[in-house]
Amino acid sequence: MQAATGQKEYDFVIVGSGLGGLACAGILAKEGYSVVVLEKNHQIGGHLQVYSRGKSIFDTGVHYVGSLDPGENLYQFFKYLGILDKLKLKRMDEDKVDVIRFDDGSEYAYAQGFEHFEEQLISYFPEEKNAIETYCEKIRDICSKFPLYNLRVSDENHYQTDGSVTGLNAYDYIASLTENVRLRNVLAGANLLYAGVKEKTPFYVHALITKSYLSGAYKFIDGGSQIAIQLSRVIRQHGGQIFKHKKVVSANYHENGEVSEVVLENGETVRGRQFISNVHPSMTIDIFGSDRFLNVYKNRVHGLKNSISTFLVHITFLEKSFEYLNYNIYQHHIDNVWDGVEYDQETWPQTYFICTPYISKTGQYADSMSIMTYMNAQETEKWSGTFSTVAEPGKRDEEYLEFKKEKEKQVIRKLENVFPGISEKVKSVHSASPLTFRDYIGNRDGSLYGIEKDSGSAARTQINTKTRIPNLHLTGQNISLHGILGVTVSAFITCFSFIDKHILVDKVKNA
């Protein structure tokens, strides 16, 4: 580590190696700046991390990705970053990327490509043709208002001040289109992708995410950590450095109020001209010194509600016992797909996401399955004083392990409704709780998607990349939107403070 601690002063010191931090480092290193990324954990990548149990590989956060067809936004961003052709991808089923499934066994597939998606929905609900066409048109219209998602640059952030965009509620808008309750629930059936809350989720969140998965949906062959691995190679090729096991705990300042260096837990310091935090804004305030921020800003950021956390169950199958699924299932055991967030303990899990990762060596058979459902961090509150990661191993007690085992059983019992007899095909089961996500991702409550967006007070939930500290900037899922695409966009927005945005977006378009 000595290289990072001598008197070397980096152009950019980036705290946290989630996708936002790595993408910023990749952009800035490519544009000729000296960059260092500091990561507290044993593995880089935040939600891109994978881990293995036995010989099986499991993704923690990224199960599939959209907008990767030629010419689509993420395709171009990845092309500019120099990682696109190095990713091993498997295109998902044309006729069904996602299947929205209900307790009565009925299934509705989302097809790839907007026209195909529209036609297929109309085939399920022929009498609702108007509503479906209006819905699709609205998605296109809303998405057109976000310049960077369309590889355009705008000098005013008009969508941020346009209440008709940020203030439109997803549940209300979808309900306004049709009296058909099942169609409403099918349209919102993948809302686990953004932890949809009936009273709060803005329609633009629903629109941007839905559209991205309809324009080129792929799974990562052998795990999503390849994005982090390939980005780290790009960073190093351009002279950047990445250090793991380097937990940033505080900062020192110049007399003019700018950050001069960050201080690591082991006492080392890393000097820089500019600093970018990929850590949750609330934790960033704690690290960089609460007294450096205005009370009104601190109170707002600390007071923002995070989206709900998750309980993630990983099943490893007996060899060749379960066929690989080239699509995902959003299973709802309740009629209203928005009610899963406020779940009932007795009937949990009421709604969950099912996918089988594509593993090259097992091909047509699934090696494993991931089931992701909602879990409130309060359920693991009694163990919140414990901490455990590979970098800092800690033990949680028997009671916690029993709690997880019981929850795993509940999930598998429900899963039997979808795949009768699946229990007999299971070789092993393990799981991750809100505490796992809290410890690895570095937020307070294991929140899945960061700060909860609110159509009722849109401006309050928007976080600027610039802070009151002149050379401290923010990036990550709390800036623009979560997800691979949202965080990549956020990284570009952060870098616009240092690189002419017109030039940078031109490079992306012509990559």
From TrEMBL:
Keywords: FAD, Flavoprotein, NAD, NADP, Signal. Pfam families: Amino_oxidase. Residues 19-420 form the Amine oxidase domain. SUPFAM superfamilies: FAD/NAD(P)-binding domain. GO terms for molecular function: oxidoreductase activity. It comes from the Bacteria. InterPro entries: Amino_oxidase, FAD/NAD-bd_sf, Retinol_saturase. PANTHER family: AMINE OXIDASE DOMAIN-CONTAINING PROTEIN, BLR7054 PROTEIN. This is NAD(P)/FAD-dependent oxidoreductase.
